[in-house]
Amino acid sequence: MLDDLKNWYKLRAEIELDYSKKLFKLSKSIVLNSASTSLEPAGLKVAIDSIKTSTEKSAHSHAELSGTFKTALYGRFTTFINSRDLVKKNAQATVEKLRKNLIDLRVLHEKARRKFESDAIATTGYVTQLQLVQGRDSDKVSNKLDKVNMSIKLTEKEYRNHNRNLQDTINDWNTQWKLFCDLIQDLEEDRIDFVRNTFWDYANAISAICVAEDEQCECIRQSLERCDASKDVRSYVRQAFTGNEYTLAPSFVDYTKGELARSIPILTANFIRTSTRKAEDTTLIPLSKPIQGMIQAIKAGPSLDDPIINPAGKTTPWENKNKDSKQNLYPDNLLTYPLNDHQYLDHTQNQNQNQNQNQNQNQNQNQNHNNLHAAQNHKQDQNHNHTSTTLNDHQYIPPTSPNGYNEDNHTNNNNNNKKYLPLTPVNLNDRPLPLPPPPI
């Protein structure tokens, strides 16, 4: 886990560094540094300058954030992992060596115990046998007993030594094992506290960037409050005006009649402006619809369709298997359900109500359709009693399912929720009936 988090902070720092470089490049954009910007009115020029300044400061902030991630988080992880592995490695090597010695001593102790046990059993047997035999057999048993007594002294000494060594090793093992367990618990608590502290520093760093961004946004808003379109236009007119005098169109001079050219009068412009702009309330500017939609989307969280990709950029086999199982178990329309529980319940209730209404409509249509068929059959039976074959044999009767619903107009939920309208009943009264067959 520690190595994975270290790599995660490394990637996070690279993302912030790349973002800061792109922001700094954006602050040097032509639209913010062109010569035409200096010709803008005072209010709009201040707003453009504030955008440029805020972009540069934002780039600097994210560059500092990237450096903080590298030194305060990624670097600390490297140091912590190395020191942790060093402490654990020395203690673990001691315990593993002691455990190996303990296993070897147990094997030697068991062999010595079995030899001593067999010699003791043989001694007891020979002593008992010596009491039961006489003569030359007694001498043989006595010789064997003497040999066993000499051997049992060696096996007893060996067994005592191995038993003493095993006891000392077990006592040492118990002590080292307890110390190692305490050390491992201390390392685990240190790991949890370290990860917690790094997450805390990460949250504080992100929060500091957000505060700095909010301060820059406040500067932008303050500059925009001083930007007034009408005042800026009047200021620009005073700065680059060409005068308020204008002339009328020259009149026609008929030189054939001896008319002389008259001077063109110069007038002073004093017009009343007629504007088609809508009056806006600049005291309180509400959030625009795109911003409101963005805020709602942020509160709702990521959608269920967004895949979670590991830092390497590839999905793991477990994720692919989980994805395949989800696609087989759940329908596609389930992924489009809202995240809110209340919205999901309302959506499910509305869908159930629509299905019930469709079923009721289908039942009513089937009932009317069946009544119409019955009435037509009854009328045809009255008009054609002398015929053995009627038109009802050739009339199409839609099949019905066991539950009484019409198969043609029943809604098939498994076929992309398509609805099939019932067939239009045929009115036989609008068609001429065929002539009865001639009598035989």
UniProtKB/TrEMBL annotation:
Protein known as: F-BAR domain-containing protein
Q: Which domain of life is it from?
A: Eukaryota
Q: Which GO terms describe its cellular component?
A: cytoplasmic side of plasma membrane; mitotic actomyosin contractile ring, proximal layer
List the coiled-coil residues.
Answer: 88-115, 145-176
Q: PROSITE patterns from the xrefs?
A: F_BAR
Annotated region Disordered: where? 302-336, 376-440
UniProt organism field? Puccinia striiformis
Q: Which GO terms describe its molecular function?
A: phospholipid binding
The UniProt keywords, alphabetically, are: Coiled coil, Cytoplasm, Cytoskeleton, Phosphoprotein
Subcellular location per UniProt equals: Cytoplasm, Cytoskeleton
GO BP term, pick one: cytoskeleton organization
Which parts of the sequence belong to the F-BAR domain? 1-232
